[in-house]
Amino acid sequence: MSGLQAVRGMHDVLPEELPRWRQLEEVFRTVSALFGYEEIRTPVVEYAQLYLRSVGDTSDIVTKEMYTFADRGGEQLALRPELTAGVVRALLQHGLFQRRSLWRLWYYGAAFRYERPQKGRYRQFHQYGVECFGSPFPESDVEVIVVAATVLQRLGIQRYELHLNTLGTLQVRQRYREALVEYFRSVRSALSPESQQRLERNPLRILDSKHPADQPVVAQAPIIWDFLDAESREHFDSVRRALEAGGIPVVLNPRLVRGLDYYTHTVFEFVSPQLGAQNAFGGGGRYDGLVESFGGPSVPAVGFAFGVERMLLLMTEMPCEEPVQVYVASQSMPEEAMRVAAQLRAAGYRTVTDLQRRSLKAQFREADRLRVPVVVLVAEQEWERGAVVVRHLQEQAQWECPLAELADHVARALSR
RNA sequence: GCGGGCGUAGCUCAGCCCGGUGAGAGCACCAGGUUGUGGCCCUGGGGGUCGUGGGUUCAAAUCCCAUCGCCCGCCCCA
Question: Between the CA of A197 and the C1' of B7, what is the distance in angstroms?
């Protein structure tokens, strides 16, 4: 391990990629607010057992992907592998469910999983998500999905599919699970080794196995839609109708199951073929039992999370934020140039000067490289009369201007 | 955690198979051509522990082993 190297799977965000990150973050904020969602921030570190109770102990996230460690007092802590558990913990710790029966919340931050890095899969990654606590009704499922779709629309991400399914109530899920186990046992030897293991621990996950051997077996497996009771069916149909009415196209996928144990009823995933093996860049669903499983009141909830790095992979346009507007070049007069630059900044123009005492030619080259529209040239000849030269690069036009009127002249040049 | 590919200048890569000619190209960067002015062109220049460590050899970027990192698939999931 070289000392000058970021930890495996963890990445720097260099200046040239930051405009994109900022654009994402701004869209998260404005869209959340548009729907009345409030931001919540929770610690990056939690007690490790928090995740055992929420994500489920059959999930690999908990069994082998968590960064855990003991602090100096011997407490087992964990870097958060996802953010929902921490949000629920915070809500309960501060008694927020006693103050209001409905909470619309959003979060944004880093999460950590100890996995083998791949395209779109990192050990430190970022999630943006929203959670709606307090409504058992399909309107809230729909609202949350519409928030997600609005975010994508504002970011110009278009080539994706929204996959939708239902897991039904806990009872439905239980009965379906039994039927699945029975079926997969009967064809056990045809399954991949990984899926044979999953059969005991988490049989639903076999459905979205990508292993070639599993494909034909999965295609013949029982379908959850045949197990839905009236309540589950009605909830599912209602969500579908509303999304259709809202002009949000969905792909119904009976084999979509989500990794985390706490989902009931609606589950959904945003997928894109551009991402390779990690083709899902966002997902969520309803988790009515989660709050209660923490020892809290019975509060229904729906939510989703986007993987920020995966969204970045889908964003083709690079927004250019706050480009420099004026370059103050000088003929061996760095101090005067700094004063002129200060004057322009005071007038509100984003302005830079040369800091390397380079030739005029080099300064103009730099201005051109920065795509600065206007160069102000400070040179002895004009300076003696209290003037400078204003040059408009693209139009190759330049004129002399008294120092006192510089801001006006720059304004005029910039408006061309 | 499992299987495979790859690490040579800031970037993209050639050289590696058949060890030995001064470690190269394009782009980028710097300077000059234009002693008050950019983009194009010309000329020159800076920059490399050939991922790291060990081994084989008279000699290793080149062969062998280990290790770290990246990429692809499985797993997992955002």
Answer: 36
Q: What is the pLDDT of residues A30-54, one digit of tens each?
A: 999 999 999 999 999 999 989 887 6
Do A291 and A373 lie in a common domain?
Answer: no
Q: What is the mean pLDDT of residues A410-414?
A: 96
Which CATH number goes with the domain that contains A354? Answer: 3.40.50.800
Are residues A268 and A129 part of one domain? Answer: yes
Of A8-22, A194-208, A317-331, A381-395, highest mean pLDDT: A381-395
Say how far A412 CA is from B66 C1', in Å: 66
Enter the pTM of the model.
0.88
- Length A5 CA → B58 C1' (Å): 37
ipTM over 0.95: no
Q: Has residue A35 been placed in a domain?
A: yes
Contact A274, A313 (CB under 8 A): yes
Domain with A385 in it: 326-414
